[in-house]
Amino acid sequence: MSGTRPAHSRLGHAVVVGGGLAGLAAARVLADRADRVTVLERAAVDAGTGVRGALPQEHHPHVLLHSGQAALEELFPGITAESAGHAAAAFDWGAMTTQLPGQVAGRFRTGIDLRPVPRPALERLVRTRVAAHPRIRTVCGVRVDDLSWSADRRTVTGVRGRSRAGEPVVHAADLVVDASGRHSRLPSWLAGSTGAPVPARTVAVPLCYVSAVHDGPPGAGPGFTAYYEPVYAPMVRRGALVLPLPDRRWLVGLIAVGEPVPVADPERIAFARSLQNPLVAELVATGPRVSPRPHRYLQRSSRWWQYHRIRRWPRGLVALGDAVCTTNPIYGQGMTLAVQQAVALRDILDSHPLHRVPARFQRAVATRLRFPWLLSFNADRGWLPGPRAPGAAAVRGYMQVLLDHAVHDGELFRRLNLVQQLLVPPTGLVAPGTLRALAACVARDRRPRPHVAGRPPAGAGGGGAR
After folding, report:
1. For residue 430, how many other CB atoms are within 10 A of its CB?
2. Run of H or E including 163
3. Which tens digit of pLDDT belongs to each residue from 55-89?
4. Is 366 helix (H, G, I), strand (E, B) or coil?
5. Is 332 left (phi over 0), alpha (psi -120 to 50) or beta?
6. Helix/strand/coil for 176
7. DSSP 141
8. Residues pairing with 104 in the sheet
């Protein structure tokens, strides 16, 4: 990144609340546009820290999508090559075995490379880069309790909090970035200042993940790269994601909707045997577990804080990453969206006067979130009773037809994944090329083996679909 500070957005001091991937990416952006950047992190971290205690989902499978890799490379040149030493060999997205209800997707060349760097390793690499920057300082053990405001309550002028020892901490700032994640307290801070609640969209679907690292699966042949068996509303409530690690180890994540995934090994093996592909159970049962214990994570809902709808968004404040929106992690878009939002912050700082940056940025974040939220929301709504929005059935029906044929047609599969990887806008799903490819599939009648909604797909076992 350039070391210049554009005149439009010259800052004296910027404060970033939260030292995860979103906060680190934002700090790197601000370091080229501020005299000083302070990152306030509640946990005790240093340049070598991977897993922070405040982020329990770090033990579970994460994927930085292709578009996220490109965005991270923009902010940290050379990090893609550097991360290669911390990951298994890269592979084409289409080479992953994907098990859908009653059918397995074909393996197609998509041109979308995936290098599944473990979340702790990726965050450690980024944190090391940030720690070495002369204009960035990280202060650990700080809990931020509130914002500081100007007399007219229109501008955020800093943050207030306390150290782990209970001593007061005050930081004045020209710009405050909330990157504190899904447990952000910004909605209550804003409501306490303005007296009005922050608008939000929420869908409550309880998801449970249990993950552990295992030595390589005996049943994996030379063509095995990774495995994905998503849950699928309303009939498939159990799934799995298996990602490769260095040294022929595998990170195995078991997923359930509306029920706990067991942690004890005998019950975890039984759970894996209820899935459609026996390879997952074989891995869990016969591949020695390397993790000291399996880790469980619960997410009870997805939520989008709609800061862009606040009529008078305060100056001196922006929010990004999970502090704005948490979607269903099944789609693996969280890290990518966070890094892309940091790139958007860079571009807006470089093209707008500082007083216009916060509101403009929150609108840009909303634009980037609309499709990922729609994808997650529509899928999650399938688990819930009640009426659907007008047109929802038509959209779901079209997506089902598209998916049914994409698993057997390389061109459709590639186009679908370009959208899911956030490489092209969602209009790509109805672009002329997509419609022509879908029409050709329908004409050839490449129908997959049918399955009946509500009935366990073949090979699902006793509990694979409920």
Report:
1. 11
2. strand 156-163
3. 556 788 888 999 999 999 999 999 999 998 888 88
4. helix
5. left
6. strand
7. S
8. 99
